[in-house]
What we know:
ten-stranded mixed sheet, alpha+beta, 31% strand
Amino acid sequence: MSSSRILADSALDSDRFGIEVVRGHVPEGTPDKDVIDEVMASDATLIILRTAAGDSGAVVQLQRRGWPVIHADTLVYYGIDLTTLPHEPLPGGVRLATAADRNAVHEIAESSFTGYRSHYSANPLLPRGKIAAGYVEWAKSRLVPENAGGCTWVVTAGDRVAGFATCDLRPDEGTIEIVLNAVHPRLSRQGLYGRLLKGVLRHYAARSYRQLVVSTQLWNYTVQRQWVRAGLSLKLAYDTYHIDRRLRLP
């Protein structure tokens, strides 16, 4: 895939599912022919392709040529201008995670994302157990000390870690992205997620970051309502497609 402009190897997905997986984000304005040529040149078992929402020209042409394309999800991005926020202390119970929180983050991710409807679960050939394991791996990935570009925040209820927010930091851009977040299902509807989000917003606003972004599937309405209450607004939307060779007719 070294000569590809759009598709790139996805080593974590390939290792998890035991097949060759490539992923690609189609830049706006890319000619449909370029997308089709790359898909047809790829020998990967599964191609995960993300396009601007509604930009389905290349996908429709692939379908007409007999390629099995699954519309796997619509991903919505919300954001907020951190420079508009007042500098206030962190809410109680919100702190940076440490290695000692690994087991708690594992349990919360496993409880929260088992059965969650993501683009992976739209593909009937991907094992459900391995999908959930992927979320657990993802949740713990920013707890690794040498991952300087990421961090994890937690919110506690009493003496228990109740939720987490796994983040990527891009200080050169002044941007923080929450890449995965959850509160344990048994502790939902107690205001813990709102407190966690408020803590992250306040911390990075005070450190001169300019914006925070976060994304979820379109149908995850509950968390989007939380984001709007916290001052975030809808910025972008993308469609995710799975092109799985194993679904092709002989």
